[in-house]
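A quick word before the example. In earlier lectures we treated sequence and structure as two separate objects. From today on, think of them as two lines of the same record. Here is Class I SAM-dependent methyltransferase written that way.
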Amino acid sequence: MRHRTGNLLTDNPELYEARFPDPEHLAGRWAQDILCRHGAGPTVLDLGCGTGRDAAWLHHAGRRVTAADLSAPMLAHARARHPGPAYVTADLSRFDFGQRVFDAVVCLDSSLLYCHTNEQLDGFLRSCRRTLVPGGLLVAEMRNGAYFLGRDEPATAPAVSRFTWHGTAYRSTTALRVDRAAQLLRRTRSWTADDGSPPVVEHSAWRLLLPQELRHFLTVHGFDVLALHDGPGPRTEPAWQPGAGPGDTADGDRLHLVARKTTVDPARTSAAEPANPATGEQP
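And the structure line, produced from the sequence above:
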């Protein structure tokens, strides 16, 4: 068995789009709806853009989109198949576009959760704040840590999926495990295909963030949370449809975030308690 640390679908973007089709462009339309609802300007940074489908949808909706990812195959596919946005290589946890700023940062499909540690999440939010105009939006869609951390193991048996693409039959077996100490949802996925290629075993993980924990991180980094709810969204059941407003709960397995950059610089605020006015001593 050949082992990989990457992702078969990430390394083969056409296969990714075949396995996870989005013919109605729900993710891009949902993001565009959120940006319109909250009056975001035209410039958008799509972080973790993957194959570029959502970035291209936002581009065709009239926005000026820069789309970033770490995967070279994904970016090459995006440039060839979904032209319009400017595609660049960038790391979620520490990106810097110099003097360029954006009206909104969009981070879909749990891309934010590849920030596994607090340091990486801090780096992501610092970079977002530096990159956004005053009042700019951060829009994210991801797995909900409260859903997974508050339950038993997500599956009692590995899930098996089959699909055929270009005449080749693929079979994947996926097992999920909650690593509570690290707050990670760990995934092991085994792939086989009937074209003679060797089997592949992959290991990946997502950070599991609790809603109130996420609110705290955002507040510390100078964001006001405008919405944080479990649906509807592009990956919920039922899925989001035009005209659907945000929910008011955060119990489901997806979490949808809208936050606005405040005008207050978090670096200028202090977490220290005030001195006792009578004694001058700290409590």
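Notice the following. The two ends are 60 Å apart (CA to CA). We will return to this example when we discuss secondary structure assignment.
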